[in-house]
Queue: 2 jobs
Job 1
Amino acid sequence: MKSSVKNFYLIYLIFLSIGVHAQTPAKWIKIQTSNGTVMGLKSDSTLWAWGNNISGIIGDSTFNNSLYPKLVSKDKKWKDFELSSSTSNGAFCIALCADSTIWTWGNGYYNTLGNENIFWNVVNFNRPYPKILNNEKWIAFNGTSAIKKDNTVWVWGINVYKDSFGSGNTKQIIYPEKFRNSADWKFIVDQITTGFGIKNDGSLWTWQYKMYGNYPYSYSTKIVEYQVGRDKNWTYNKNWGLMKTDSTYWAWEGDSIPTQILPSNFKMKLITKYKSKTNVGIKTDGTLWAWGQNIDGFINKTIKVDSIFSSPVQIGLENDWNYFSNGFYYNSSPYYTTIAAKGNGYCVLGDNQYGQFGDFTTIDQNTFSCLNVTNSIDEEIVNDQIKVYPNPNEGKFTLEFNQVNVELKIFNIFSELIYSTEILDTKNEFDLSHYPNGIYLISLKSDKGTSYSKIVISK
């Protein structure tokens, strides 16, 4: 069954053969996972989400999990997004639209959405659809901070733990407020317990908190703010973190001295982590590299697990990697999911409890498996008007469709037509029990167009 699942994404060949999505397919240019949810941005500026929907992060006005990618706001084009974990209750999203407006949705437990007061409203602190932050024009964002076109920095969200927002107290910031003397700041990264920023002169600053009393009922905070070193050649990018203007890469936990991690000749377009202790990077030539601790044998399966690699090692020979993300959620213990944009599709590893692989299944993968899909399985393909049950099945199933005089075709994962007929009733029974286990595409063509569904045969 697993091999059939892996090959399922070859099914796009079927779409080509029957004339669906004949245009050049859009590629995934950014893809992230958090709390069992996956969100991805494609080269055609469309945004997609699937998997865990406990916080409404999929953005379809429901809280139902999805086993396949769903389009977020069909009428919008997007420049960038960030999928962040708010609490164990789910994730929230902030996204920059093509018109330079910012939109937020998902979990608002810490006033992370920035456009309504739902902090600690245990009944309704999730919003399952995108809502505009305000009518201002923005150029960049990070977490619950953003930069306007006039280069001022604005922040919102929880301010209980520290006074990183410079408001002089510990109030909740519901709507965006200007950050300190924000004309001095080029970029800030604000987090729950610490934050740091880079001023226009290139200097690096951090602020941390000390908390006293019985949080959250009686407490006080003391904020410590200081410049990190004396260098004034710092810069920052969300895809790789701290850098200097000499193109060197640096790691910093906020409570220590920044440490150089890569030389200037190692040109990267993304640096991230696999399970916190394995560094993963994608070079500008599209090759994948890793260094640090060899967790799960990710760097080299033939060498002792947890061995340390001090220098980057290339993973495979491919040069079409676009993005890499590793996320986790807790359910008595951490469960990890890794997803990486590669070529025309993406690769997956780890837990698939919520269907975050987007392959119509909840089957985990213990090896890095690439799904060669060149387009998303969206509402245009998976039509809710088609009912197939039971599904999965042993080959015998019932199909209900609200139209008659329809041409039915069933294809296997190799684009081969295995069955065709004309259905004259809205309810029909089929027997494909003589076919092997696997995933099959159902095509129903009428004078109103073509609709699609799938069946899983598992004996």
Job 2
Amino acid sequence: MSKIAFASILLSFLFLQTAPVNSQTPSPTPIVIATPRPTPQEEPPIVMKHSIRAGARQLNYTVTTGFMPLKNRDGDTEARIFFMAYTLEGTQNPATRPLMFSFNGGPGSASVWLHLGALGPKRVRMEDDGMMPAPPYDLVDNDQTWLTETDLVFIDPVGTGYSRVAKQDQAAKYFSLNGDIESVGEFIQSRPAASEKRHDSLLRSGAYDVH
């Protein structure tokens, strides 16, 4: 073996002996533990004051909007019903003033048609012949509003408007004839935020009836 070949082998051996060895241990993959989402707290209703002109009369009223939770026997929220309530200010005898609950006969429709089309203090502006105008759309004072005669509460049954089930597995319970009746009935019996006054007369208004 030549001296050059021997020197090459020796240098290679020394290089392997002195080469740095990566002694670092690979970092373990971090484990992400999913934390359950906190249960949303029920937000209080929003209360505002407004006024409109209904014919020659000025109507000053309070509007209250929010969600009423529907709970099971364990206190868990299964669904939330969206509502808008109108209370006329300055009435002579609030205790004898009627209170009307209005919801669409649908099925599967929110109360927006009665709310902004017929009964509420504001309505969508239409053409003189009753046809829909071109956009942009406007809200105008409703001089035919029923607020002159009764306080109003517009209800969106669960699954319509802004009303929703809390969990999708509860949908079958509320998207049924009995579930619809019971949930709307529970809302009417509780009468949340409609008025702090006692009403002697209660009216129920749907797209097909008034009671």
